[in-house]
Amino acid sequence: MTAPSGTLRLGSIAPNFQADTSNGPIDFHEFLGNSWGILFSHPDDFTPVCTTELGAFAKLEDEFAKRDVKLIGLSANDTSSHHAWIKDINEVAGSNLTFPIIADPERKVAHLYDMVDYQDTTNVDKKGIAFTIRSVFIIDPKKTIRLIMAYPASTGRNTAEVLRVVDSLQTGDKHRITTPINWTPGDDVIVHPSVSDEEAKTIFPKFRAVKPYLRLTPLEKE
Ligand code: BEZ
Q1: With pLDDT > 90 as the criterion, what percentage of the chain qualifies?
Q2: 123 lines ligand 1 (CB under 6 A)
């Protein structure tokens, strides 16, 4: 199977669509409003890895809400299947999943976002049609795609990493900084290369140059 041509990249506008979800029909852009959004896909309802993932995301709904991030899942099944599956997820994880899960049995949204599996011949439905992979799209309030992750069906994601990259993106938007390897909030950040040393002295009085191109600074607590 070959990938479609309208490739989505970082910086692309997240394509709009209308779909049925476990919380009723939505227009994706209206659903996002002026918030950040995380659209994340799953291969199939009632599958083990997906069940653990959705339970973990559900338990972090408050953390995402604090960051003004709306979660929306997607799985290649209809809403009645989603409703029954959500009961299982909550039972297994001890969660209370309230965000919508898109019903995408025909893979319409999956194809729009190129979430369809091109490599795993076992990740298929009863008719042999490829399921979705585990994609994550982080979308900012201007509907720009800011981060894309793609995991195979066999590997569950890491919710802490998804939260961490949201924190990095939002911190970078607020201050003229980037974040180093394994950064988490509270760690030193990197002064953006576009900021001169002179400017850095005023904006980040505690910055230190490890190398002329690697300048670290703490961020004042807000
Ligand atoms: C799972 O969620 O466990 C799964 C789903 C589809 C293929 C492989 C694993």
Answers
A1: 94
A2: yes
∠ CA(120), CA(122), CA(125), 5° rounding? 115
pLDDT digits (tens, 9 = 90+) for 85-120: 999 999 999 999 999 999 999 999 999 999 999 989
The 3-class SS string of the chain reads: CCCCCCCCCCCCECCCCEECECCCCEEHHHHHCCCEEEEEEECCCCCHHHHHHHHHHHHCHHHHHHCCEEEEEEECCCHHHHHHHHHHHHHHHCCCCCCCEEECCCCHHHHHCCCECCCCCCCECCCCCECECEEEEEECCCCEEEEEEEECCCCCCCHHHHHHHHHHHHHHHHCCEECCCCCCCCCCEEECCCCCHHHHHHHCCCCEEEECCEEEECCCCC
Q: Catalytic residue, from 8, 50, 97, 165: name it.
A: 50
In the residue annotation, 122 being an active-site residue is answered as: no
Give me ligand 1 centre to Cα 98, in Å.
Answer: 22
Q: Is the pLDDT of residue 163 over 90?
A: yes
| Prediction pTM value | 0.95
**Torsion angle defined by CA atoms of residues 87, 153, 128 and 102, in that order, rounded to the nearest 10 degrees:** 40
| Residue whose structure tokens are 């003229």 | 176
Q: Is the CB of 153 under 6 A from ligand 1?
A: yes
- Ligand 1 test: best mutation among 53, 124, 129, 154, most atoms within 8 Å of CB? 154
| Cα–Cα dist 215/186, whole Å | 16
